[in-house]
Amino acid sequence: MKLPLLLLASSIHYVSVSASPIFEEFFSPGVGTRGAVASEAQECSYIGRDLLARGGNAVDAMIGTTFCVGVIGMYHSGIGGGGFMIVRDKKGNYEAIDFRESAPAAAFEGMYQGNVNGSIYGGLSVGVPGEVRGFEYVHKKYGSLPWKTVLQGAIKVAQDGFIGKPKEINADMARFIEKTIKDHHNFFVEDPSWAQDFTRNGQLIPEGETMTRRRYARTLQAIAEHGADAFYTGAFAESMVKTIQETNGTITLEDYKNYDVISREVLHTEYKGYDVYGISSPAGGAVSLNILNTMNGYSDQDEDRNTTLHIYIEAMKFAYGARLRLGDPDFVDGVPELEHEMLNATTAERIRSKIDPRKTQKIENYNPDGIYSSDGHGTSHVVTADGDGMAVSLTTTVNLIFGSFLMDPLTGVILNNEMNDFSIPGVPNEFGFAPAEANFIRPNKRPLSSCTPLIVSNKDGSLFAVIGAAGGSRIISATTQVAWRVLTSPSWSIKDAVREPRVHNQLIPNTLLVEKKFSSYNVPSLVERGHNITWVDEGLSTVQALTRDSAGVFQVAPEPRQKNSGGVTL
């Protein structure tokens, strides 16, 4: 049955961020030495490119693009959520920025005992949003254009609307809305706050008609004029807190006021002559870099590709096993030391000695503690770079699709359900594994995340690649596979690496997910080695990436598994 809804299609009418038009010739298509942007929404990537053309840098382009993605892809991102980004400045210095949602001050370890659904729906599931404060922080430190200018593209899209053609539907949006209605209820129509944006005359807006988010536009305009304080204090904060508390939440105005951005440790590993940089816990950088650290010891990866793929999957499983001991380092002892151990040469050699190239192993060999950690699903990734070598890799999320199912009636903000990313004491998962104590709730703590933004440089320090993904626990595997392929084989372009079918095994459950377009030539070899294979459709993970060659020419690789995804160069 066709869903009668405007689905934020890939032909959104983009409005330039200034009154004067920018003609396509100005961008010199095909040259692409001044900058690049890739995101899940082509029209939002145009906004980022426009900002670069006006003298902005990679940070300006990232902010403008991501604010726009939050307008269009509101089902998994927006200013009601948070995330992580790694920034490379034009001198080659790196900063890892944590703007992840935090638990409210009133949160406590057993708050979901007997009420697991409270971590998923309603006010009790909401963490303190971090995106607006995070963007203000990075703009003040690295931005070039005025803050107000950077937000205008997203404001225009929210105010004037986005329109979809029947033959160019955002299939992801259709699937998410249809599944949400089927699994839960049609709050898009039944809830007055949602209905303001999603309905006309009591019905879901039909395909081909314009959808606007004018309350959200007004909220963004206030943020543009008055900064992040317009979101974290005053009428907007009061309205969001009221919405949360009326649905059983405990967040207060003090929680909003006290939210702060954290500069985390930048993690680093070398792989095949490249320097790879990621973000420490509670992000997933250590897990990704651990896989590359292990694989770096194999020099003949192109000789027997079946064996190499098996070894890579085994390295992935050992890395996911180590992840179960990670958590917010401000609350969990020993996390930095564990991450450093994960990235040293001795650990890589030890893991390689445990990998059997002929077969897979029992799960306790990878996860001796028998624990598990929670994961989210609703994420979006943006990559940007400019001609000076500045780059940003960013992942943003409201956690599960449509977050907590709460939309604040004043601001039009969809509130996250990030509290579901914490582990709940006494609640084993469906496979009988105990929850990871390192990820238990504490006041103001940030839950463990799979977000894995990466930036790669050449040995001379010049920028080579910017990579990241969306897709819950598959973020780590998808990001790492793309990096692994493009860094291992010089003949692979970044577009080749992103297009290549993916595999995923997060250890719990010990099942190898294989995309259906994966070569049937490789699969029998994996079965013979003992892998428990489940075929899955493409699109469970979505990657955005770009590279820059030695001549300074950019290549963008937006995710082909997303209809609306797009990348542009300048």
Describe this structure in words.
The chain has 570 residues and is α+β, with helices and mostly antiparallel strands. The protein has two domains: 24-258 and 377-439, no CATH class; 263-375 and 449-564, Glutamine Phosphoribosylpyrophosphate, subunit 1, domain 1 (4-Layer Sandwich). It has 18 helices and 22 strands. It has helices spanning 42-53, 58-72, 131-142, 147-160, 171-183, 187-190, 192-198, 214-226, 229-232, 234-245, 253-258, 285-295, 305-323, 335-342, 345-354, 474-488, 494-499, 523-528, and strands spanning 35-39, 82-88, 94-99, 199-200, 203-204, 262-264, 266-271, 274-279, 371-372, 378-386, 391-399, 406-407, 414-415, 434-435, 454-457, 463-470, 503-504, 512-515, 533-536, 542-548, 554-557, 566-569. The strands form six sheets. Strands 6-3-2-11-10-1-22 form a seven-stranded antiparallel β-sheet, covered by helices on one side. A six-stranded antiparallel β-sheet has the order 7-8-15-16-20-21. It has a three-stranded mixed β-sheet with strand order 17-18-19. Helix 1 packs antiparallel against helix 2, helix 4 (147-160) packs antiparallel against helix 8 and helix 12 (285-295) runs parallel beside helix 16. Mean pLDDT is 91; it is low at 1-29 and 164-169. Pathway: Sulfur metabolism; glutathione metabolism.
